[in-house]
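Researcher: I'm preparing a figure for a lab meeting and need a structural model of a single chain. I don't have an experimental structure, so a prediction will have to do for now. The sequence is pasted below. Please return the structure as C-alpha cells so I can convert it later.
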Amino acid sequence: MLSELGFANLDELIDATVPQNIRLDRPLGLPDAKSEAEALTELRDLARKNIVARSFIGAGYSDTITPPVIQRNILENPGWYTAYTPYQAEIAQGRLEALLNFQTMITELTALDIANASLLDEGTAAAEAMALCRASVGAERTTFFVADNCHPQTIEIVQTRAKPLGVRVIVGDFSSFKFDDTVFGALVQYPATDGAIYDYQSFAKDW
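Model: Understood. Here is the structure written out cell by cell.
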C-alpha cells in the first residue's frame, strides 16, 4: 500500500495524512509495562477501595437478584446465545427461541394476546407499545396517557417517539384521569418509579 501511494514508510504516510495541530509533539508519559500478574494485583488493590453502598436513586435503578438456575441454564447456556451480536443478520435460533419463550411466558402471566421482546430498554419498550396501540386502532384516535409515576426517562422517550407520530401525550395522575374517545392507549407502571405499589384495577375497568 505504501509503495502504491508513493511513501517510503508508515511515518511518511502519517505525516501526510494526520494534521500536525492534532498530533502530540512529545512521547506519552506512560509507566513501565507490567506483567499480567502485576497488572492483576494492581487492579485488585484498586477494586478493594470500592465501597459497596445501597442505592436510593430509584427510577428503576435498583438491585436485582438473578437466581443461579436462570444464570447457569439460560444466560450462560451456549445453546441460548451465539457469537454474533443481536443486530446481525446471522442471529441463530437460540436467541429467537429464548425470545419466543419469554413472550409466551409473559402472555400466560398477563393473559394478554401479545407481548413484545428484543428491545433495548424499558423506555424503548414503552414507546413501541404506544406505537403498536396506535397502529391497532387507526389514526382517528390521537391521545396516549402516561401515568406521572412512571420513570422520568420512560416518559421522555415516549414523548419523543410520539412527536413524529402526531400523538398527543398526556402525563398525569392515573387515579383522576378520565378516558374519552380520543385515547387509544395508556401506560402505567408497577411498581412506580418511587417503588410504591398501586392497584390499577379500577383504572383498567374505566378503560
